[in-house]
Amino acid sequence: MTSTFPNISISTERLVLRPLDEEDVTALAEMMNDEQVAAWTDVPQPFTEDGARTWITDHAPTERAAGRGLDLAVTEFLTQRLVGVIQLTGTNWHVRATELSYVIAPWARGEGYASEAALATAQWLFTDQKFERIELRTAADNTAAQQVAQKIGCISEGVLRNACIARVRAEDGTWTDVRTDFIVWSLLPEDLEGAGEPLAESGFTNYSDWN
Q: What is the pLDDT of residue 69?
């Protein structure tokens, strides 16, 4: 029988992580059209509101129901504004392992939101879902993503050579694919021991109860 993630809400001191909702369509499309997001992810460009709606109403529920992963909207606690997205993909329920990735809106960068959201997700995975391994993959030149991995306590395990396709702007304004390396990071339950205040501030509830 396929295991699946629950519809969860995770709260931290500043953030609420919850399932994506149709009200997120416009903000999600704007975020995914950012230059840095386009450069380091494989989302279609330009990213339309129709694409955002399909992600929210079709792709995310399908991935969760199939047991492959989970997509969470990251929102500010006070304003409810969409800060970013946390994704869990390639989940192996037998091994209790999953890959975590994050995207943060350009206006919200530099505030520590990515690490706060990722750390809270990791705590939930390790304590509530009894996972034993979280993996992150960052492009070799994506220093911002690497800093988040280091900040939450990930260990660099090695390099997957030529395994990542990033994008750069061509002279005519279009995007061109370029090959680069992936740096592989891992996070285990024992890596979070003593992580301190960010974990102490977090909590989680079933989304249907919270909503």
A: 97
